[in-house]
Batch of 3 targets.
Target 1
Amino acid sequence: MKNEPAAPTQQQDAGHGHHHADHILHYPPSGEVPGLPRISATLYNQDLAPTKKEGRHWTSYSIFALWANDVHSLGNYGFILGLFALGLGAWQILLALAIGAGLLFALLTYSGFMGHKTGVPFPVMSRIAFGIRGAQLPAAIRGAVAIVWFGIQTYLATLVLRVMLIAIAPGFGALDHNSFLGLSTLGWLTFLLLWIVQVVIVRYGMDMIRKYEVFAGPVVLVTLIALAVWMFFQAGMSISFSTSHPLTGGAMWRSIFGGAALWVTIYGTFVLNFCDFTRASKSRKSIARGNLWGIPVNTMLFGVIAVVMAGAQFKINGHIIGSPSDVVEAIPNTVLVVLASLALLVLTVAVNMMANFVAPVYALNNFFPKHLNFARASLISAVIGFVILPWNLYNNPVVIVYFLGGLGALLGPLFGIIMVDYWLIRKARVNVPALYTLQDSGPYFYQQGVNPRAIVAFVPAAAISIVLGLVPFFHSISDFSWFFGAGIAGVAYYFLAGRNRHFEDVSGEPIAVATTH
């Protein structure tokens, strides 16, 4: 058995400043718990610990608000408008979304149930299948994708903010023509402003993120519906339901199913770490209900809005817009431009914090639990997202396709292994306290803390997924690379893992902490 220092008593722990805002909790607040394994300070702190069932306050509406923001992201509108440009008409786009949303609802609901039952964040959830040390692999991959996208989304938000500032005071336009390290003076000022706003919000923890998402959801929905209605009237109360060169036959159906698959792939990050949010949910019913309204219902509303925008613009002048921000720029009233721009900024910040800030915070905590907490890790991830100069990455198609595309291709195999291990092999039986011990007799210690069977299943599936996703020869099936990766890894792991073992189901409640930190 690994030697660990004795866990302090509750009184000793309090002496370390337990109530200080920047305190890092190395052991359960109650100290050593009789009958449970010795908790390791290298695996446990207040952000990685399970959440107490009592006091969880993410409701159905909290979950719905996440999707009310994220589904309506500018990137998603760009994706749907791209399908319209490709030649898919209104009903074909809506069918693709319906198929994708149905699949996502199932995947995200089962992923969410894992978080509700165990109360642990994604890096700790990964310890179940990959081992207490092997979990660093999925946590690092998910965190790396998120940090890069955090920087890119912040940069995309500056484009909206710059339009708004120039509309208010045209003199700002003079600051937007020079370039230093790839960004104008106005670009630097707006990026710094939005970067600071996000850092401040996230430093208050997950509950502040929940409150922001709940505030932003209605603002986003009302604004985008209003933009679609305005475009509809501009087009004479009718729209084009397709371009002048619509797809038909086999090409049409391939694009419909490809679009549905890509809609799932877009959320390949989220299906992995949805437990980061649902670990604070009140019940399984609240997750299912929030997902139902937030994914299938909300996605179809999103599709209708996008189709109206694209069809109205095409009816007006034969052009296809690339983003709702293009609609905002065309609004002739300065006050309305400012209001619409503010709403898009609220949206982009909401999407960024949910999709791209939470995951690296937990990943960094998992690497350095003795030294980091939510506030410190959020600052580090934000600094990394800044110093990589994300606008230069975004403007380089090679980086977007090969770096982010390659990392994204790894998410499917990770999901397949984690879900098969939890649902099919263990049947949701998890010894939560054992996820935080270095005892080599622990069920998640495997071989030196790594489960070699998970790695053996992951590597070939990841290689196949990357090849299918990035090699031009496989272009016709590249849209489905996430499914190939998840399926191959899941099936391989199912046969490698062995299903005749005994699994204990032990609650994490004795070592849990309050949801709000």
Note: Confidence is low (pLDDT under 50) at residues 1-20.
Target 2
Amino acid sequence: MRFAVALLSLLGIASIIGTVLPQNQPQVNYLVQFGPFWSQIFNFLGIYDVYASGWFVAIMLFLVISTGLCLTRNVPPFLREIRSFRENAQEKSLAAMKHSAQLEAGLSPEVAAQYLSVQGFTTKTVSRQDGSVLLAAKKGAAGKWGYIFAHAALIVICTGGLIDSNLLLKIGMLTGRIVPDNEAVFAKDFKPESVMGRSNLSFRGNVNISEGQSADVVFLNADNGMLVQDLPFEVKLKKFHIDFYDTGMPKDFASDLEITDKADGSKIEQTIRVNHPLTLHGITIYQASFADGGSDLNFKAWNLNDPKRQPLKLKATSMRDFPLDIGDTKYKLEFDQFTAMNVEDMSMPSEKSGGIQSAVNDVRSVVQENKRFTNIGPSIVYRLRNAAGQAVEYKNYMLPIKQDEDYFYLTGTRTALDQPYRWLRIPTDKDGKADTFMALREFLKNDTLRRRAVADSAAAAPQEIRSQFVQAAENTLAIFAKGGYLALDEFVRQNIPQQEQEKMQGYFYQMLFGVMNAALEQTIREYALPQWPQSEQRNRFLLHSMDAYTGLTEYPAPVLLQLDGYTEVRSSGLQMTRSPGAALVYFGSFLLVLGIFFMFYIREKRAWLLFSDGHIRFAMASARSERDLKKEFPQHTLHLQQLLKDLNHDRK
């Protein structure tokens, strides 16, 4: 019993995990969530498909067999006990009972039987050879059905679970009859031994269908590969609907489906939504998720090896791959899902103005604090892969995002899925565009324009030091134009004695800010940009631009992409299941509730009255109602004695 309870507890814990943790997801999702170490441990334990894991199935098999044997052994005695009145009770055994009393003679067995019947007892009168008469009574004997129902419920529920646990699939894989495929991408490419027929007893698979597209198979996760499950019908997604809360979180989503029966060609149209599935041919279609279905995307593209401020126009489609040739170097752009609305934590610490070293630290490391969850608009995730197969992942947001007091165009980069994004922040100008920053970048790449900006900033310097200032400012701006803060910091560490480096860093930072202010003014005039008078907002923009310029020198791609527009195409994530064991689970749950009700609310009680030798022995017993008997037995004794007095009143 203790072992069975322990196993049931283990199954309960596993069921909680299977409910909380999404099951049968792509391995990459678990890798991102748990990291490379724990994702492998959890995969080995079968946590990602709990209900079909070997140990879960083995426990259910054991419980079915052991509980079945228990019922086989105990049900016949239970049934005999339910029918029995225990009419073999003797005087000595009745007197030894905890609740026993001797009554005066004068009460007939018929009257006593009638009294007990009124109290809800079923009675049986037995005349013995010694002349005594035993009146045996019972009520609540049906309570023992509670044990039978509860144990039978366990068998029925576990049997239903075994039917829906892909046990036959596991057996087929062990025997080599079924072989998961880990190479094929499209359903038509799967080998025959990786395709499940329509007669498959139970399955749970997923498929994503874009608007206007159809599918007649679902994909099943099996160990480290996939299987294709053929369906008796074809499902077409006519339209996908989604509503959002004010925060941007999904409120409700639904799919308008057209389903064509493969057998007779008949069609039906049905809308399904979350918690409102559709069942056909014993297969239930659930609205499980939604995703991008291959949206048309427009980008602005800046070649970072070219200082031009005007971007190229690039068109692409999400969930597709495109070649990208830059000079003699060949790349591949791999676009992932497009997301039209994002509610994310995009809070970042403000940039510190404490000299060059502080700015360098801000560029190299970004730590998120004081989380703020905000709807920040459309985004696209893509990867740029070189000829050697190495890739860097990027996440770009279409709309400028507010950080502290200003707005930025954000692009995150990471080289591994378990790493956080490092954010490049392109500041917007007073018109909310990136034009001024890109113009400033082009300006800094031009030697002639840089010297003109230095000359403007040197005009306010005293005549006797103007030439030295011009030379120092030109060198500082040239170093910054080449590599941003990082290059300037490297110059200080290599050319300035260590004891003077901190002092010179502050000096270079002040000089750089002054020259960059003149460069910004020259940029506005040179490219006929809207005038921007000196203000606190302009000063912040300049500081942010210097940070962003430094970030671009470290940007791990030869091209900067900025999402500029889109035409969204959605896909619906459908989960299709055939689970004949579900009916058994429901029936087993009903038996379990019924068994618990019988066990806790129907209490067995027995009573005996033995009429012999001029006296009456009255006794009561109960298996689990001892507290009730402490109150009931004296009451029944008093009532019987009172009944005896009332019947013999005339005689006295």
Note: Confidence is low (pLDDT under 50) at residues 348-369.
Target 3
Amino acid sequence: MSEWTPTTCMRCAVGCGHLQQGYTNNYGLDTVRGDASHPVNRGLACQRGVSETADPDGDWLTRPLVREDGTLVPTSWETAIGTVVSHIEDALAETRDGVAVLGSGQQTNEAAYALGKLARGGFGTRYYDANTTLCMASAVTAYYQAFGSDAPPPTYEDIPDAETHVIWGANPAVAHPVMYRWIADSASDDDSELIVVDPVESETVDDADLHAQVDPGTDLAFARAVLAQTVADDAVDREFVAEATTGFEATVDSLPSVREAAETAGVSVETVERVAEAMTDSALVYWGMGVNQSVQGTATSRALIDLCLATGNLRPGSGPFSLTGQANSMGTRVCSSKGTWPGQRGFTDPEERQFIADEWEIPRSRLPDDPGPGPVGIVDAVADGPPEVCWTVATNPVAGMPDASEVRSALDDAFLVAQDAFRTETVELADVVLPAATWGESEGTVTNMERRISRVRAATETSPKIKQDLDIIVAIGAAIDGELFPRPALSPESVFDELRALTAGTPADLSGISYDRLEAERAVRWPAPSPEAEGGYRYVDNDGWSFPTPSGRARFSTGAHDGLAEPTDDEFPLTLTTGRQADAYNTGVRSRGTGTDDPPMARIHPETTLEYIESFDRGKTVVSSRRGSVTIAVNPDDGVPKGMVWLPIHHPAVNALTLPVVDPESDEPNLKQCAVDVRAPQPSNPLVHEGQPTVDGEPAPTDD
């Protein structure tokens, strides 16, 4: 075996330090364990992060592939890159928006930066985004609107000091096990408590002192009820509100009655009172996809921030803490020119645009005028034009995006380039496949959910037929624009140095973080404007409160519950909601094995299963929405309310059902609630509905 190599786990955004050993005479990792010297986890590591790093159960890509006569066949790197470049150049000759690019929170900071530089500064396309918009955009938008900057104010160091932990629309016991251990340990103290807001019972609910079981899609109503109760109880921190915020009176004027909002959310007034009382203590409010993935995701995130502002919970040991899913979601936001220029420079600000154009040595007119329509809008544009080429990097939109059958159709009609480490549903549609290095094989940095940057390192070599994400991006970029990427290969360190220089003086200042510093300290939290500086709790210091907003104050909001994105009716009388399972992440490509066609396991209340018993066949049925039908296996579970179907979001078939309507402020889709029905499979076509368009619960006719 090789020497121990320190790195960072890439499964989720906790950012745990790992130590890994590769084989001496073979490719691959032999052993992975937690790194006791890493400041994030101090040696803790979850088994799923270890196993998915050391021994992922996916179907590895081992060489470039190109489609010939409808079949993917092996080819050389020269042919693969040449084919991609030729099609991109042809598309750009028609319009700079002729190429769509979908990146990922699975990329390093360096690869994400290079991809954004190529998409925005090389192509000039507005059709560029990342799958992080599918999970974090609403929280990000809310942070910008409230504070003028993205990313949580608190850090992991605040968790032990909190007296109340409110986990809203998330299941960190499954999604973030190491972080959840800190939360559970803190909440277990006699003077602390854990409150979970979730429509279903979960592993996190098992430890809760209170489970507020709201109806799906009503989180905003419940949050406003709690704030209304806080005002009624005269529990507002008036001194903090007066000193550090603006807009509070308008928020109060917009609040519903407690009883009305509680009824909308499907909870008792007593539950509202209990949560409001708990917020008077030092409270951390964590939220996840159950809040974000909604047409009201931004408004609900703002409402949770409002709760913290009103109760003075915006100081160490408290605050609003969005839980990031993918390992480098934050790095993708800060680095990649997706929604802002690097360092959170305003995308449409003329001075910032000129600064970026000057640094990249391109005409400012090449930069797109706006950040684009988000992933759902990008796929719509691929279907209707102008993009003729779509390039996906470390993402699987055919499985991960809502209304997946339409996504499949749109990408199948485009010239599709899939860059990935494993075979996925998207790879199977591709015209060119670019095999990329993965965890344990890659060099660079990532940024965790509390703003800490740390190194990822390779502990094993790869086959010459596998390339690093960064090398692939630069090879394509250099062939298209030799001035943007003047050299055919760039070191990750040189790219990081270019990136951090661009962030100097910004709210997300990385300029004081170097590879040498990361070598010595393992991880450094931004903002870090000097080699000695490291960010802590944000927006407060010895001089008081200061926010990067025009007024220098945090801003309250006035959002109100506005109904469900897709209510139930006589045709679709059940409500679908989705969530994570312990063994499935990132559409499950590293954990579900090869060739599996097992149906997703649905949690349904026993009384609901009895009501629909004629629709079941040996424990299986077909769930149908207005968009598709999926065969499911059924697990009767009274932890799910009557009338609800719970399905795992990372199963590749589930998003054939989900709704592509998006939050108008963040472009994040409403993946958490839609109307469905369960219907018996037809004998002539038993249990073959996975991922297909549907008519009356049966697969729609095709031209095949």
Note: The chain has four domains: 5-54, 65-131+327-525, 136-325, 574-693.
